[in-house]
Amino acid sequence: MPYATNQTLIFLPVLVVVALTLVGFVRMATGRAAAVKAGHDPAFYRAHIGTPEPEHAAAGVRHWDNLFEVPTLFYAGCLAAFVLGGVTGWALAFAWGFAVARVVQSLVHITYNNPGQRGLAFVLGVLFVFALWINIALKVFAGL
To answer: How far apart are CA 77 and CA 87, in angstroms?
Structure first.
């Protein structure tokens, strides 16, 4: 793929994942608020001791937690590509691939939550992040 002339294009898929993270926060907060409104003991949220959260609220929390696992490698990879001047067509393809896979994974997780489909989207996202980092490593080694 040809080199992208505008290095800042790498931040478009980053903005998608950041927006997804904000959606995840709203999902978690509304799930917990709904649980308390439905009668779940609000004291649970002081130390997470007592009756566990209802499944709907717990799924929102797990989804929120997921947004701070593999995506951290994605953010670091996009920043590294930008700083190294390595935003190529391949880097953009890998970054967009991750963003799309992450959106699909999240949509599955917060709707009907099919583990097989969610897992497939997760694996694809991880592969895109690994490919992004291999692309960055090649850029680094080429500059040595």
So the answer is: 10
Give pLDDT tens digits for 48-69: 888 888 888 988 988 999 999 9
Within a domain: 131 = yes
How many folded domains does the chain comprise?
1
Q: Among all chains, which residue has been given the structure tokens 């308390």?
A: 36
CA distance 26 to 23: 5
**Is residue 2 a part of any domain in this protein?**
no
Output the six-digit token pair for 63. Answer: 């989804």
Q: Kindly report the CA angle at 74 between 111 and 128, in degrees rounded to 5?
A: 75
Task: Of 77, 119, 76, 128, give the one whose Cα is nearest residue 99.
Answer: 128
